[in-house]
Each structure stands twice: as structure tokens, then as C-alpha cells.
């Protein structure tokens, strides 16, 4: 039976450390959260991030804009926040309405306030191993590996998912830690043949029950990034948990696994930004 990787407990411990570090600064680390429209899922994410900031003694400012907001207006707000001395990190909740280019918005955020690590410059620096910040979900997963003594070096790692937020940076971090990496997605032919070779399997495809018991080998480490809902409306991931946990050595539950670690890495990035800004 697999060992459950408790992301919630790890995140709680890290929050305590971040709170103590924040107390050493002349002012509170500051986050600006911009939400355009009233998407219910985005609202939940924003509320959770604001709650996390409050728990760690960070400043959090919310900017709620109507669905019809013009791209120019959003870019003007970002430009103001780039210059704001109380704000160390800027987070624009995605997805954005159709009239707004996500790429233009991401590129408008100052590199030293890009705590989501989506800016092309931060992505490029990550490829060289010298990023301003690490992307939150992949970095959280690497922290899980360290906490549970799971070595990546020399392992066959399979990442299912190719998004710029999780799949691609996850593959890069695994490579930088000496893993041998294959990136797949839902259109990959003979996906099960590839996943059965994995010593470490990270699934971030967003498709419920995509990974079943017959698709993994005994002793595999399984990281389930996805957040889906089943027929009863309960959260679940990409992985058929009952089947896969019977064969895995380690596995993340959904919820309570990757999600809390993603949020705590965001807090770490905000603190890092604040420390740099206040050291100037």
C-alpha cells in the first residue's frame, strides 16, 4: 500500500517558517491579486490565496474588475502596481475574458514581481537554472520529493500534461535534478506503454481516471496534479486512486496533496520578492 504524501502537513510547516521570516522585515510582504469577472472557481482560488496571506502576516490587496474590462485598463493597473512600493508580487488570476490577451498581461508584470513565474524572462531563466522565482506547482512537487526522501536522479520520469504552467516547467525541473524525462499528453499514442515505464509519474492532464492501475508498475511514485470532480461533485484527480495506490510506493491524494504545496510556494515567492525589494 502506498505512502500518502501529505501536502497539507508540509505546507502548514512551511507557512510557520514563512511567517517567522516575514516578521524580520521592515514591512509586510505585499501581494496584489487581480480578478477579472466573476468566475466561481477563480473566486475560490483568490479567496484561498488571500487567506494564506493573512495566516502568514502578509499584506493582500484585491482588485476586482468587471468582465467587460478592456485590456488597456488592466495593463494600466498592472503598470501602477509595478511601481507600488508596498506590493512585492502581482498575481492576475487566469483565465481572463476573451478580449484580453493573457500573454500581454503576463509580459506586463515586472519580472521581480512575477510571483507566479509565468513571465517569459522567468521561464527563460529557469531553463538556465537561475530563475527569479520557480513556478509554484512544479516547485511544490520538488519540495514533496525532498521531504519524503524521493530521489529523482537517474529515474525514468513521465509527465502527462504539456501546459506552460505545470507540464513543461515540471519536465524542466526534473531534468535539472538528473531525471530522465518523457513528456506525454492526452493525444499521445499508446500512453499506457509509456506510463508503465515510469519510476516517477506526474499527471497534470485534467482528465478524470486517465491513469488506471494497469498503466503503472509496482513501486511507482505518483503525483496527481489535476483537480477534477466526480459524479458526486467531489474533487478527484487524473488518477484512479484506489487502483493506483495499491501498486504505488508513494502517491498524492486529491485534495490535500499538490494543491497546498502550490499555494505555499506562491507565499515563498512573495517573501523572496519582499526580501529582495527591502534589501535595496
TrEMBL record:
A cellular component term, taken from the record's GO annotations: cytosol
Residues in coiled coil: none
Keywords: Amino-acid biosynthesis, Histidine biosynthesis, Hydrolase, Methionine biosynthesis, Multifunctional enzyme, NADP, One-carbon metabolism, Oxidoreductase, Purine biosynthesis
Role description: Catalyzes the oxidation of 5,10-methylenetetrahydrofolate to 5,10-methenyltetrahydrofolate and then the hydrolysis of 5,10-methenyltetrahydrofolate to 10-formyltetrahydrofolate.
Subunit structure: Homodimer.
Catalysis performed (reactions): (6R)-5,10-methylene-5,6,7,8-tetrahydrofolate + NADP(+) = (6R)-5,10-methenyltetrahydrofolate + NADPH; (6R)-5,10-methenyltetrahydrofolate + H2O = (6R)-10-formyltetrahydrofolate + H(+)
Biological source species: Oscillibacter hominis
EC number: 1.5.1.5, 3.5.4.9
Chain residues that bind NADP(+): 161-163
Keyword Transmembrane in annotation: no
Alphabetical GO biological process terms: L-histidine biosynthetic process; methionine biosynthetic process; purine nucleotide biosynthetic process; tetrahydrofolate interconversion
Pathway linked to the protein: One-carbon metabolism; tetrahydrofolate interconversion
GO molecular function (one): methenyltetrahydrofolate cyclohydrolase activity
Residue ranges of domain Tetrahydrofolate dehydrogenase/cyclohydrolase catalytic in the record: 5-116
Family to which this protein belongs: Belongs to the tetrahydrofolate dehydrogenase/cyclohydrolase family.
Domain annotation Tetrahydrofolate dehydrogenase/cyclohydrolase NAD(P)-binding: ranges: 135-277
Protein name, entry field: Bifunctional protein FolD
UniProt-listed InterPro entries: Aminoacid_DH-like_N_sf, NAD(P)-bd_dom_sf, THF_DH/CycHdrlase, THF_DH/CycHdrlase_cat_dom, THF_DH/CycHdrlase_NAD-bd_dom
